[in-house]
Specification:
The chain has 149 residues and is of the alpha/beta class. The protein is built from 3 helices and 6 strands; from the N terminus they run H-E-E-E-H-E-H-E-E. It has one domain: Rossmann fold. The protein is globular.
Length: 149
């Protein structure tokens, strides 16, 4: 088991390819908003160096975002919420299912579609090596440019 992958120091939980492929079939993503050159799921992507938080995500279609899972995660959720309200393009986020957080209540609950994932995902490292199941539940959050009621 890769202990770094499960440590609190690791903020990069790489999306399993088959999981992404299923979402991509539905949404046809044009941008991966939080990636590295090794982990990018789309031809267009932002890296830590290009800073997806400071860029427009309007690339003419759906956006995928599996953000860093550290203290900055709320900034990514807020960014997705504001970008989809501005552009009307769907933004799909893969997030830890932390329903007790302020960002969940401020930007997700009653404002986006939530799909809780049954079981635990098996994330990978930057080289695509799968690990054991994640130590937390996950959810897919779909922002579609309008608040849900």
């Amino acid at each position: 088991m890769n202990k770094v992958l499960f440590s609190s120091k690791n903020m990069c939980w790489c999306t399993p390819q088959s999981f992404f492929d299923n979402l991509n079939e539905e949404f046809h993503f044009v941008l991966d908003a939080a990636a590295t050159a090794k982990t990018a799921k789309c031809p267009m992507y932002f890296t830590p160096e290009t800073d997806g938080l400071s860029q427009s995500w309007d690339r003419g279609g759906a956006v995928f975002c599996n953000p860093p899972y550290g203290r900055e995660i709320s900034k990514w959720v807020k960014k997705a919420y504001t970008e989809t309200a501005r552009t009307k393009n769907p933004i799909v986020m893969l997030l830890p299912a932390r329903t007790d957080t302020a960002y969940f209540h401020d930007y997700i609950y009653n404002k986006a579609e939530i799909r809780f994932i049954r079981g635990r995902l098996k994330f990978s490292d930057e080289n695509g090596t799968a690990s054991n199941s994640a130590p937390f539940p996950s959810m897919v959050v779909i922002f579609n440019g309008k608040d849900l009621k």
